[in-house]
Design goal:
about 60% strand, ten-stranded antiparallel beta sheet, about 110 residues, Jelly Rolls, mainly beta
Amino acid sequence: MPVAFDSKNLANRTFEPLRPGVMISRLYEDATSGAAAAVLRYSSGGRVPKHRHDGYEHVYVLEGEQSDENGSYPAGTFVINPPGTAHSVWSDSGCLALLVWSKSITFL
């Protein structure tokens, strides 16, 4: 059965802590391949520590602004992090982002 995501109905989604200041709502997760999709909600100052992407990461910033060592990405920005890249991620003012991973990530 398909999973439908409607960014206008986020109040109906369940979020759980991922890191201090970062909450996650998982859309799907495949334990075998590491493929997954989720919505991340960053509070002001929320941060995900440095990690490496074993596959592609696609990020669509829905609200606010997300940043990493390469720049800042306001709402409406679509970011592709290729396999083998590494970064940490934060939001100074808070943001909401949709993420899709083709494989798992490794925290460094």
